[in-house]
Amino acid sequence: MLLITRFGLTSAIAVLFSAASAQNAFTGAVGFGAIATGGNSGATYHVTTLADSGNGSFRDAVSAENRNIVFDVSGYIVLESAVSLSSSITINGQTAPSPGIGIMAGEVSASDKSNIIIRNLRMRQGNLDSDSGKSAFNMGGATNIILDHCSVAYGQWDSIDGVGITNITISNSIIAFPIGQQFGAHIEGNQATYFGNLWVSGHNRQPLSKANSQYINNVVYNYQAGYTVANTGGVFSHDIIHNYFIAGPSTTSVSNYYYQINAGQSVYATGNYADTDSDGVLNGAQENKVGSAVVLSAPWASDSATMADRSAADAYTYVLANAGASPRDEVDAFAVSTVQSLGTEGVIYTNQASTGLSNGGYGTL
């Protein structure tokens, strides 16, 4: 019997989730994943241990549907194997005591699941995971998923993998320092929203988006290739609005902020800037020419214009101040400071330990 599993919401949790509804995952949720309701009407499960498994563990918390998951502990949960999420759950990392909660050394998988909300969670795979074919977060075949204010780093296959998705949002998150393939996110499927994210030191796929997509108010730093479609990506529509691409020491071709966007794509691109001189000053120029794509005169998605309420320069300021899990830990602080060098610092890593951060590069929670 799990005494830590409680059915019905306590008054504090009721206040925390009162904004959630069938129409909106939470106040401020945007994009295609915002229709997720998670486990907001289900049981509340308290994670009370950092152990990999057993009563009160994160693995046990996500093993059943219709749960609001809250954290009574802070620190890293070190996975002994990949952990699979159930459908219809909400993971509320913001409930953890300071300095917050993180998952390390294994994959968090929402593969083939639906209706999941994840907020303020750190997912740091790294090479302590012996399976280099897995990612930090996998949502292949998933439907109605929103990641908000998450921090994803040291993914081996991809930081975020999502082939066969329907209605996902990645928002206000930091996707940094992929190792292995050194890819940020691989998304294929129906509809995807990327809003207000900070992408740091990835070789490519920031993201690779083979889907009808919204890409708004993102900041991409030290890229070798930025927003990517790939020539085999199929025919999709893309709203690319008010993003900032900033070259760094690893950037080998500064014009690859848009990559492999072919004539089969339809793109609305406006207000995007690229700073390519690596001089330590934010002084980019507008760059809205997107390969051989069909140029749209208006956004294809009805809410893209409303979402794009910050200029690229304002997005830079806002994203660097607000993206990622809160409070910021050592890894995210390092990612942000790397971006703030504005072209003078940055490495595309093959091993998290090479960052020189504590705890073998994972940082200490």
UniProtKB/TrEMBL annotation:
GO molecular function, one term: metal ion binding
Signal peptide positions on this chain: 1-22
Keyword Metal-binding tagged: yes
UniProt entry keywords in alphabetical sequence: Glycoprotein, Metal-binding, Signal
InterPro entries assigned: Pectin_lyas_fold, Pectin_lyase_fold/virulence, Polysaccharide_Lyase_1
Gene3D superfamilies associated with the record: Single-stranded right-handed beta-helix, Pectin lyase-like
Protein name (database record): Uu.00g059860.m01.CDS01
Organism of this sequence: Anthostomella pinea
